[in-house]
Amino acid sequence: MDVLHAPDHGHPAATRSRPEIVNARRMARIDNCSRHEYYAPSQRLEMDLKHIPLTGLPSTGLGLEVADQAVWYEPLQKYAVQCRIAEAVSAEVLLLPQEDGCLIRGKIRGRVVLPCNRCMEDTFYDLDHDFDEFEAFPGTSPGDDAPGSADLSPEESLVSMKDGLLFLDLASLLWEEFSLALPDKPLCKADCKGLCPSCGRNLNLGACGCSAESGDERLAVFRNMKVKRQA
Fold it and tell me: What is the pTM of this model?
């Protein structure tokens, strides 16, 4: 498997249906294209993760490994996602050429820190995400049974054409898959007690002493009301 390398920024900290994925892609566009280096056994080429050449891929596919933490860290910062990278996140990708597009098969591994959905304390989450995506070539219409067969505009598609050559925006695809891999409601533990709604104390650390919620004061007149049952 070929390897994509770039200098590690070393920073310790750093979202289905097809329409939902498309919306995620709109949010995933990375404006600043960093350069990456592509290492093959006998040659060293410069490659841009937003413009991976698809023209002339071998029929057996092209394997890539992405280890640059900027791929994840830059959009995390840009979109102010409450997520930090705890241990290096990496991706392995296989690009398989098809008659009308490219099948992207891959996996993302790593460890991140997220705020618990109940108590907001740091919660470690191990990423173990496998994905299969199909990106149609411009001007083609995949079959209805093909993954991601919905018609996409040029702005929504991750495959572009320039000077007769096809390119894949792998950086945005990986950010999309990274976002999909994150849990909707992370919990520090299954029985997390959350925060006291009155004082904000973390109830996992003990009771706070606040009185139990008495309900809406506007309904206090009904609390002692007795209703006679009819025989």
Answer: 0.69
